[in-house]
Automatic annotation (TrEMBL):
It comes from the Bacteria. Keywords: NAD. PANTHER family: EPIMERASE-RELATED. This is UDP-glucuronate 5-epimerase. Residues 12-349 form the NAD(P)-binding domain.
């Protein structure tokens, strides 16, 4: 593994107004003494743009505290090849973190085009720009880190999920596009010697998260007095991972690029790796919802006497969903000495407090 010093580097973060992207940008500004960040986001209305704008304001506030660093935000689309090429020409990023994607399993069933445009064409534009960053003997991109997803494991029966498992059974188009990203990155790593690392994220949650995620949607509905549906009769298990843990993992991985080396035939071996980032501790959805309710009452989002039982309904599984996600994170621990550590209660407490402040 080749160590990359982030100090003084230029980093392109796509999806920088997104949940993970914005938190990564904040963390880089806070922890690296001099860094130049270029953020790209199309600010689409897949969910409430007010949350994206709030995240961008938080980044601007943080950036103003660090005069030796810089932050440039570009509003634009990953699928716009000309724009991507211009960004690479103007800013010459040393590290690229591709977090921009059309997210969500259920949305991919009704809106497949958004996934093809962002997750396939958009990622292809990033790979091409990385490839050409080495033209004319330039140093070019030192490391491409990109978001994959735990959804690639599909209906795998073996748990915990290991990056050594075969993942050829996606149950949603979203999962299929993420698996495709891994295959595309592997091909580019092999052909053009681009150091690439894919990250399979497991159910990320936390303050200022995505409103289409269960915990956020549950909160909105409970507040309105509506009934929440708990799928698979509450027997779903998810490897819930707090966003700060995800970001720390990403930041460490950015600094460890797969090594460029030649095989016995003298040709480059693909500098390519994949890691799970999850809690490796799946929680039952019913337990998750109970803790969420307690923390919403504690934060005074819900009243003390809220009748939770009257507002929940246990229902069958949804198409495209899987009963359990469970990460084997041993490779992450071995290579980066990192393991997520935030408990569900700590994480949901932080979310409930943010929700109270943001909406009230």
């Amino acid at each position: 593994m080749e160590h990359i010093e982030l100090n003084g580097k230029t980093v392109l973060v796509t999806g920088s107004a997104g949940f993970i992207g914005s938190n990564l940008v904040l963390s880089l500004l806070k922890t690296i003494s001099s860094i130049h960040i270029v953020g790209l986001d199309n600010l689409n209305d897949y969910y409430d743009v007010n949350i994206k704008n709030w995240r961008l304001k938080e980044i601007e506030k943080e950036a103003s505290l660090h005069p030796s660093s810089s932050y440039t935000f570009i509003k634009g689309d990953l699928s716009d090849a000309q724009l991507i090429n211009t960004i690479f020409k103007d800013h010459e990023p040393d590290i690229v973190v591709n977090l921009a994607a059309q997210a969500g399993v259920r949305y991919s069933i009704t809106n497949p085009d958004a996934y093809i445009s962002s997750n396939l064409i958009g990622f292809s534009n990033i790979l091409e720009a990385c490839r050409h960053s080495y033209d004319n003997n330039k140093k070019g991109v030192e490391h491409l880190v990109y978001a994959s997803s735990s959804s690639v494991y599909g209906t795998n029966k073996k748990v915990p999920y290991s990056t050594d498992d075969q993942v050829d059974n996606p149950v949603s188009l979203y999962a299929a596009t993420k698996k495709s990203n891994e295959l595309m990155a592997h091909a580019y790593a092999k052909l053009y010697n681009i150091p690439c690392t894919g990250l399979r994220f497991f159910t990320v949650y936390g303050p200022a998260g995505r409103p289409d995620m269960a915990y956020f949607g549950f909160t909105n509905k409970l507040l309105k007095g509506e009934t929440i549906k708990i799928f698979n009769y509450g027997n779903c298990k998810r490897d819930f991972t707090f966003v700060d843990d995800i970001v720390e993992g990403v930041q460490r991985i950015m600094q460890g690029a797969p090594e460029r080396k030649n095989g016995e035939d003298g040709l480059p071996l693909p500098p390519y790796s994949i890691y799970n980032i999850g809690n490796s501790h799946p929680e039952n959805l019913l337990d998750f919802v109970s803790i969420l309710q307690e923390e919403l009452i504690r934060a005074k989002v819900l009243p003390e006497d809220y009748d939770f039982e009257a507002h929940k309904e246990l229902v069958a599984m949804q198409p495209g969903d899987v009963p359990i996600t469970y990460a084997d994170t041993s490779a992450l621990e071995r290579d980066f000495h990192f393991k997520p550590k935030t408990t569900l209660r700590e994480g949901l407490r932080a979310f409930a407090k943010w929700y109270k402040d943001f909406y009230e």
